[in-house]
Protein 1
Amino acid sequence: MNRKPFLATLLAAVLALPGLAPAADYVIDTEKAHAFIQFRISHLGFSWLLGRFNEFSGSFSYDENKPEASRVEITIDPASIDSNHAERDRHLRGEDFLYTSKYPEARFVSTSYTATGEDSGVLTGKLTLRGVTREIDIDVKQTGHGKDPWGGYRRGFEGSTTLTLADYGIDYNLGPAARQVEMFLSIEGIRQ
Amino acid sequence: MWRNSQQHYGHISITLHWLVALLVFGMFGLGLWMVELDYYHGWYQRAPDLHKSIGITLFDIMVLRLFWRYSNPRPAPLASLASWEKRLSGWLHVFFYPLLFVLMLSGYLISTADGRAIAVFDLFRVPATLTSIPDQEDIAGLVHQWLAYTLIGLVALHALAALKHHFLDRDGTLTRMLRGKP
């Protein structure tokens, strides 16, 4: 008996049932740079200073039918900070700020996800920065998903959160308007 | 008078020597001070600008000095010097010029790592050349810091030796760099 048509039918049936689709794992597309970790901080209360971290990697898991089971893990090289000014970046890598010689890695590992809408939610997790691990909430919005033109499947999110510098041992005085830094993440994952 | 002879330093060499000495000491102090300034200090921006401007000026002076050194006779060490003193001071002097040039070059490479030019006293700008070497500003920064400490250490040795010749040996080593012809 030829079992192939039967298996194919079963497989097609399973895939057609959305409720049975398993959680998918995605690798964040840092390779082709469709993922960004940016920050902005006030300069003296007069304007925004923008920057980003150029080197990071990570992955996430997402199940459309069970978004609360989502998981995210991102590892960032804090020394890759880039504010478009070499001398400032050198200062930011130094002891006054990220102290990258002593703390060469930053990491975010999610612990829970709470949906607040169809495509939005709050991602809670542990951020380790400058040797300090704290729980943070990231407001997350799904920006899109679908088949890409090259045979893959992609899913994108954006997230934002605000960090207080002193919480991570950064007490360099940049002025009263610059005690917090706003983080903005734009993350695209390729399904594995 | 202006030029060196086999025994004496001319006015040009003497002036260049003390001018460089003054600038090197000043730059060392300015450098140590400026990196510790509070963000709200009035000199937070100006001090590094001044440091860079003086640095480029010092480079120009050192190029002149190098030219002058090799287009003039080099006064021989005093005959009264012991052979170990001649050897030691010979070695010390061999290091000064290259050390100072690499020190200045490393400073230039910090400030121009991202392609920015260096403004010199708002008069002219020195463009960036070597940029975007991986970790350029960090490596150049470490080199700059440690060469500065090394240079000041050698300068201290050099100065102590001059004082020793003046006050203990009572020879003309220091006075011939001050007065030229006795």
Protein 2
Amino acid sequence: MAETVEPKKFAATKVMKEIMDRYFNRLMGPGSEGKKIAYCTSVGPAELLYALGFEVYFPENYGAMLGSSRTATDMIPLANARGYSPDICSYLTSDIGSYLKGEGPFRKMGFSGPPKADVLVYNTNQCRDVKDWFEFYGREWKVPCVGIHTPRAIGDADEVIIGTVSRQIEALVKPLETVAGERLDMDRFREVITLSRTCTELWNGVLQTAANIPAPLSFFDGTIHMGPAVVLRGTQDAVDYYKVLLPELRKRIAEGVGAVDGEKYRIYWEGMPIWGKLKNLAVQFIELKTAVVASTYCNSWIFEDLDPDKPFEGMARAYTNLFICRDDQWKEEYIRRMIRTFKIDGILYHNAKTCPNNSNSSYSMPQRLQEKTGKPFVIIDGDLNDLRCYSEEQSRTNIEAFIEQLSQ
Amino acid sequence: MEYFGGIDIGSSTAKLVIVDTAGRIVAKALRRSGIDYGKTAEELRAAVCASAGIDRSAFGRIISTGYGRDNVPWADGKMTEIACHGKGAFFLFRRRMTVIDIGAQDSKVIHLDDTGRRTGFKMNRKCAAGTGAFIEEVAHKLALDRAELNGLAERSTRKVELGSFCTVFAATEVIEKIRAGVAVEDIVRGAFSSVAKRIVEMDAVDGMLVTTGGVVAHNPFLAKMLGEAFSTEAFIAPDAQYMGAFGAALLAGETG
């Protein structure tokens, strides 16, 4: 029987923790009173909010914390009882449940709870649930809830679509200025976009290191280290962090150190992480000498279209050129590129029960891609946060059997 | 003589099979898996040794499989049920095939090419529909012994549909049928049909259809219905309930 193994740690994690602690303190710590807080969806217009001087809070990040701490399933029933169905986004239900219960990971960190919003800003590029989620707080606190309605299942992101989204972002400026109490300084806006673009390039650099054999980091590492790229993009802190992490990865490559010792197989993870089972899954893959080297999820915070010279249009392109709001043909092409870049042996699709938008195994894509690429796949049923939808034993067997199949 | 062992600790029953170097079954034993898998494994080992008249030192390698595959401390290695059922079925039929294993807690569809290489597989979702657990639930609702089910289904003359995806809701449908005075044999056949439909939804069949597992071993009529649902003949593997353990024993012989 295999000995218990531990995922390898990164020295940079200490720096990330300091940066994230500072971020949370700015939002909720001493001296945060009186600051203007904007809630933002994870692929929402963060750059505009930072440029207007808001402290920007991302409920999805907190949702992931509820998932990782395996407290989500204590919270979800409270939201269910208020009419938020067990079938909808479990970030939404666990976050609203946590609000209703008055408990959650921030309490344990010494904060009174998530900060109260002055304004809530969404982009429906990922799903409708984010809008419904933010509107709950809009009603609760009687604060404005504004956003961008991005088309979905987009094939060609043409000028009509980009123009529409760009004008919607621009239209947010006035209501946001009213809440912020200040005018948008275009120079500051361009600076923030430049910082966000730099963060993207560095984060992309981090993820690309996994194209190396052996891969110096895994998908499971990526889900942890992506924190700054999500919540601090547009700030110097995020840029500084990836300037620390990237050399550590390059050092691993130079020394031939992989995230998985004796790496034999390389897997692509399609779909959301299963936050409450990250460690278990990371360990299982290490035991199977298999590196999960790339994912749609971690790559979704790469925004190469950000352009300080065309701030609104660049943001529109960046936040529309997302995997999640594209059609299946576009998604297939994307995954085929990933298979080539990261030298993938097989694909794991996580069929997340409460996130159909992030589950791409339901419209026969796995079968089509297997036919076109010859790469086998496995589908595991689970969820991002709601572990009631996950069978550990069944998933273990599925994954183990898949690696057996690759080893034939 | 050298022997190889395969032990399959399933969610309901545990099986141990001993094969010789030619892959012939020398001894086999079955127990309820119970709550102490290690103890059950010990009992099975003692039983096959007694049955075959061999000492445990005569064993070559032993491979464990099934839900309890990590709980057999003396196993030399482990493989999933998917690998083992595929291995056992291919050894017996040796052609391109789809193996459908219906177990107590899960069902698996396993595709093998004409060399026995696995080309794909599917397990049921996190749901008891299409598994032995569903059949047990229906038997419980109808106050029947599981051993009676196959004979009853065979005698059915009327098609009854249990349409729900969910085992709990399907059981509610059973209650509705009882209330409506539907004959018990028709309800049992409806339950078998429901299992077949849930499996048809999982995946397609390529090549020969071979069924394995305890459910078809005890209910051959269900395998027949499964074949009808796939519009092909469904073969029941010999020693179908032992197929996981048999495949594990064959794999033990190969890797020894």
